[in-house]
């Protein structure tokens, strides 16, 4: 009986030669290949970004970007002490007296003002 011997596989070149280069996938510029790690596809982050955008661009053509301003409501800080609460209530009183708060908004304010008065009376009579 004859023995079958297999040839060892041809070794794959796992090391790189000095001064090897590849072309950038976007601009075609030469990119040096490091002795270890991945073989680069791009010469810079800019080319990588442009390549990604071109690969993911819609078929119908470029997208039109529209800038819009977003209005964020300004939140006023809560009063920190009694004098700031007094100032705030005085400001409300002045605005009501000057007619700077619409008459149509008064029915919304009345229940809250009445509740404030009730709670204040209760706190005063607790003692």
What is the SS-derived class?
A: mainly alpha
Distance between the termini: 114 Å
Proportion in helices: 25-40%
Radius of gyration: 38 Å
What is the count of β-strands?
2
**Most strands sheet:** 2 strands, antiparallel
Low-pLDDT runs: none
Number of helices: 3
Provide the β-strand percentage band. Answer: under 5%
Shape call: elongated
Helix and strand element order: EEHHH
Main sheet: strand order:
1-2
Q: Quote the average pLDDT.
A: 83
Q: What does it look like?
A:
With 127 residues, the chain is mainly alpha-helical. The chain has helices at residues 45-56, 82-98, 106-125; strands at 21-23, 30-32. The chain has a two-stranded antiparallel ribbon. The longest helix is centred in the C-terminal third of the chain and has 20 residues, at 106-125. The radius of gyration is 38 Å and the shape is elongated. The relative contact order is 0.06. The mean pLDDT is 83.
Which features does this protein show?
single chain; 127 residues; mainly alpha; two-stranded antiparallel sheet; 3 helices; 2 strands; elongated
Structure in a nutshell:
With 127 residues, the chain is mostly helical. The protein has helices spanning 45-56, 82-98, 106-125, and strands at residues 21-23, 30-32. The chain is built from three helices and two strands.
């Amino acid at each position: 009986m004859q023995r079958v011997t297999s040839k060892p596989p041809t070794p794959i070149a796992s090391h790189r030669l000095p001064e090897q280069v590849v072309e950038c996938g976007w601009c075609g510029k030469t990119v040096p290949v490091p002795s270890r790690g991945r073989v680069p596809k791009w010469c810079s982050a800019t080319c990588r970004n442009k390549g990604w955008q071109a690969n993911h661009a819609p078929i119908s053509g470029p997208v039109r970007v529209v800038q819009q301003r977003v209005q964020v409501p300004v939140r006023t800080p809560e009063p920190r002490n009694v004098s700031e609460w007094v100032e705030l209530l005085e400001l409300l009183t002045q605005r009501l007296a000057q007619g700077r708060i619409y008459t149509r908004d008064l029915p919304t304010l009345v229940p809250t003002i009445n509740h404030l008065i009730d709670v204040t009376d209760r706190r005063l009579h607790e003692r």
